[in-house]
Amino acid sequence: MRSNRNPAIGTAAVLAAMALVVLDAGITNVALPTISASFGMRPGKIILVTSAYQVAVLMGLLPAAHIAGRIGSRRLFVTGLCTFTGASLSAAVSTTFWALVAARFLQGLGGAAILALGIPLLRGALGPDRLGSAIGWNALNVAIWAATGPAIGAFIIATADWPWLFLLNLPIGVLAVAASLALPVGGRSSATIDVPSILLHAAGAALLFVALESLVAAPIAAAILTAVGAGSFVLLLQRELPKASPLLPLDLMRDRSFRLAVGASILCFVAQSAGQLALPFYLQHNLGANALATGAVIAGWPAAVAVTSRFANKLAQGTSAGALCAIGMVTLSGGLLAMALLQPGLAPLAVLVATCGAGFGVFQVPNNRNLFFAAPEHRSEAAGGMQGTARLTGQTTGSVLVTLVFTWCPEIAAPQFAFTLAGSFALGAAGFSLRQLQGHPQGAAQWTA
Fold first, then answer.
1. Span 66-81, mean pLDDT?
2. What number of other Cβ atoms are within 10 A of residue 442's Cβ?
3. pLDDT at position 4
4. How far, in Å, CA of 61 to CA of 77, rounded?
5. Does pLDDT of 440 surpass 60?
6. How far is residue 266's CA from residue 295's CA, in Å, rounded to a whole number?
7. What percentage of the chain carries pLDDT values higher than 90?
8. Are the C-beta atoms of residues 384 and 116 closer than 8 Å to each other?
């Protein structure tokens, strides 16, 4: 259902909320050493500030989509935005480490609602005929704030205390909440909220996340957690299979185009995460680059994503989406494999990093189009939840793979091996994308933007 109010204001609300989540992640990661020193925590433990947020997002994405179908998308989106903003204030005034971790967990739950419902709300505000453009604008928005987030975080840390990292969220959050009144309310269902399924999903997601995170340090415990987490999902599947609109979007996964888009997204984010995590180690350990040079080179990746996302959206309107996604992933793979094989110096590396970002930008928009256009409008929230789940699953897996590589390989050779692994996953994503052509030879050309 379209909103009767100004759709531009509603669009601004969604983009501001998405920017808030992306910006928060970038500036918080930069500040981890400062926060660690403030609380007197060892570096290994301070990672909980990030992990608590990530696991909450993973636990909350699909349940947010499920609940939104019952109470209305706008209502849950605003609730998530208020939760995120309020938790930001709690994080800023935290006087203990565990209070900060708890605030970050609440931020993650709020962020899950924002990430799951952002594009579905844009679809309702602008209409399905402009969904392609909405996806392109959102990709550009995310890329810009991903590129500038670390720099903003570094500036705040250099000029003020770390609580200001979280206080920055307050004015943006308040404005986004006010603007969100222009969004469509969204459809509501008479069906009840399935609390047991939500709890099973939350338990399974949390256990599998912790298992992946502890795989290197405690492999036996990780195996036990994996078994219990998998058991939770088996029970969840038994509950969900008979349902027409399940919490786990099994109905959407039966669609070949949707399934391939999700698979390609997971593999793509594994490649991007692994490549980006290995990059600073190569710059500093192999090339001896200082912090300024390292930041400048790494910034080329999201900057290239921002530039190419808009072009990719226009190309996706008249080009096979599967072919365009495959071109993007081959480009990303080529950049990563060139880093591994050529062992380039600083200037050539900067070009290859920008090439990787361009490849990701070319892939991201048409693949998201494939995913959302494969879902009927009344299941847009479920598609949004699955998109976010695929992204976070890929990012977490890539992080674990890099940890394994740096644990088992000599330090000087580890970045090259990680780049090779990342490039292989990108080629896998290209293969998934090419399979789209078999079922939908016209790809995105059949869709209007």
1. 89
2. 12
3. 46
4. 12
5. no
6. 26
7. 34
8. yes
Distances (CA, A) of 229 to 56, 59, 203: 15, 12, 7
CA dihedral 429, 210, 214, 383 (to 10 degrees): 10
For 407-416, the pLDDT digits (tens) are 888 878 888 9
Confidence (pTM): 0.83
pLDDT (0 to 100) of residue 428: 95
- What one-letter code names the amino acid at 4? N
Query: What is the identity of the amino acid at 389?
Result: T
Question: Is the confidence at residue 382, as pLDDT, over 90?
Answer: no
- Residue 328 makes CB contacts below 8 A (sequence gap 6+) with 312, 359, 360, 361, 362, 363, 364, 366
Beta carbons of 316 and 266 less than 8 angstroms apart: no
Q: Kindly report the number of other CB atoms within 10 A of residue 319's CB atom.
A: 17
What's the pLDDT at 377? Answer: 77
Do the beta carbons of residue 183 and residue 74 sit within 8 Å? Answer: yes
Q: Hey, how many other C-beta atoms are within 10 angstroms of the C-beta on 76?
A: 23
Contact 200, 115 (CB under 8 A): no
How far apart CA 267 and CA 38 sit, in angstroms, is 37
Contact (Cβ atoms closer than 8 angstroms) between residue 118 and residue 17: yes
CB atoms within 10 A of CB 377: 15
